[in-house]
Amino acid sequence: MDFTIRHIVKETPTKDEFLSWQKIAGVDKKKFVNTNGKKYKEMGLKETIDSMSDSDLFELLSGDGMLCKRPVLVADNFVLIGFKLKEWEDHF
After folding, report:
1. pLDDT digit string (tens) for 11-26?
2. Which of 20, 21, 22, 65 could form a disulfide with 9 if both were Cys (CB 3.0 to 4.6 A apart)?
3. What is the CATH number of the domain that holds 55?
4. Whole domain around residue 19: which residue ranges?
């Protein structure tokens, strides 16, 4: 299997990448957010995230890789967000 490793903090995905990945994954925008992170808590996103559009949230994430849940594995027909062993085993 060919793959590319990308340091999500140094090479943060763009808003359009997030939107594309969300469409492939078929998940809520919040799945891409590192809700355990310091930045998430400092910014008070818990109180505002539900009122944000997908586009606005992904614009915010594209500006700060520390807000992104990691790892993100992107394939042609699926996207895995975070590491849940069962999900990864199901794809490999």
Report:
1. 999 999 999 999 999 9
2. 65
3. 3.40.30.10
4. 15-91
Instruction: Supply 52's token pair.
Output: 């944000």
- Determine the Cα–Cα distance for residues 17 and 81; give it in Å rounded to an integer: 13
| Structural tokens at position 24 | 């492939």
Average pLDDT score over residue span 65-80:
95
Whether 8 maps to a domain, the answer reads no
* Pairing mode of beta strands 79-81, 72-74: antiparallel
- How many structural domains is the chain composed of? 1
Whether 7 maps to a domain, the answer reads no
For residue 39, tell me if it sits in a domain: yes
Confidence of residue 70 (pLDDT cuts 50, 70, 90): very high
How buried is 54 (Cβ within 10 angstroms: 0-12 exposed, 13-18 middle, 19+ buried)?
Answer: middle
pLDDT score at 2: 83
Q: Is the pTM of this model over 0.70?
A: yes
